[in-house]
């Protein structure tokens, strides 16, 4: 647990160098959090750290209140959203995946076929545009290209949700090795999920381009 105030003199303390968002809220590194409980902790700490309470305090204490208020806001924004929470935990545990737009990152092996299929489909749609196909025909083809990506994305969401529950169960059981294995699997799924979202964004751009070109 992060100690916010000196146990001897009750003065607010500057931020420690080795803390994290979970310990700041006195929480274990769980992925399934009670958001209402998190909000209550946030409001309670907001009142404790509010700079107005330290108007007449020493410069060190005023700075500490500002630091803790800012850190609190960052921590709350991250932990209240499941994906951001997962990405943060992976970073804490040394499992940070590269961003999908990083040119050094290869397409995940599990998505190669999907990426190739979409690229072929987009080339076919470009040919349709060149040949003067109707906007409705192109929109129908894009809809067909989008559906398998959306279905795969939904499967990834379900798998990530199940793995989050598995992670927390292993955390409670003290299964450190199993927990690390689960984190590694979530890292892979999260990277694939990001690729899928980018593929979906590509299809949506094609839809928007078609709508802009339509008379």
Descriptive notes:
The chain has seven helices and no strands. It has 215 residues and is mainly α. The protein folds into two domains: 60 residues, DnaJ domain (Helix Hairpins); 105 residues, Helix Hairpins (Orthogonal Bundle). α2 packs antiparallel against α3, α5 runs antiparallel to α6 and α6 packs antiparallel against α7. The longest helix has 39 residues. It is elongated and about 80 Å long. About 2% of the residues have low confidence.
Mind summarizing the main beta sheet? none
CATH architectural type of the largest domain:
Orthogonal Bundle
**Which band does the percent of strand residues land in?**
under 5%
Distance between the termini: 62 Å
Instruction: Provide the CATH top-level class of the largest domain.
Output: Mainly Alpha
Mean pLDDT: 87
Query: How many alpha or pi helices?
Result: 7
Question: Helices and strands: which structural class?
Answer: mainly alpha
Q: Would you give the CATH topology of the largest domain?
A: Helix Hairpins
State the domain count. 2
Strands, count: 0
What string gives the helices and strands in order? HHHHHHH
Shape field = elongated
Low-confidence stretches: 100-104
Give the radius of gyration. 24 Å
What percentage of residues falls in helices of 4 or more residues? 55-70%
């Amino acid at each position: 647990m992060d100690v916010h105030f000196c146990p001897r003199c009750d003065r607010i303390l500057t931020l420690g160098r080795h803390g994290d968002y979970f310990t700041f809220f006195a929480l274990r590194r769980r992925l399934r959090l009670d958001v209402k409980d998190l909000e209550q902790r946030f409001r309670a700490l907001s009142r404790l750290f509010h700079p107005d309470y330290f108007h007449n305090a020493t410069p060190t204490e005023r700075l500490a209140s500002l630091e803790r208020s800012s850190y609190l806001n960052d921590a709350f924004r991250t932990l209240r959203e499941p994906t951001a929470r997962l990405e943060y935990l992976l970073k804490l545990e040394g499992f940070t995946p590269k961003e999908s737009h990083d040119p050094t990152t290869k397409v995940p092996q599990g998505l190669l076929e999907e990426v190739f299929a979409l690229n072929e489909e987009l080339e076919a749609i470009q040919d349709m545009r060149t040949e003067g196909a109707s906007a409705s025909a192109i929109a129908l083809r894009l809809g067909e290209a989008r559906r398998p990506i959306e279905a795969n994305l939904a499967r990834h969401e379900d798998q990530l949700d199940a793995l989050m529950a598995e992670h927390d169960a292993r955390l409670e059981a003290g299964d450190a090795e199993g927990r690390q294995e689960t984190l590694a699997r979530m890292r892979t799924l999260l990277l694939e999920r990001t690729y899928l979202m980018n593929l979906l964004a590509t299809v949506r751009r094609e839809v928007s381009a078609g709508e802009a070109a339509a008379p």
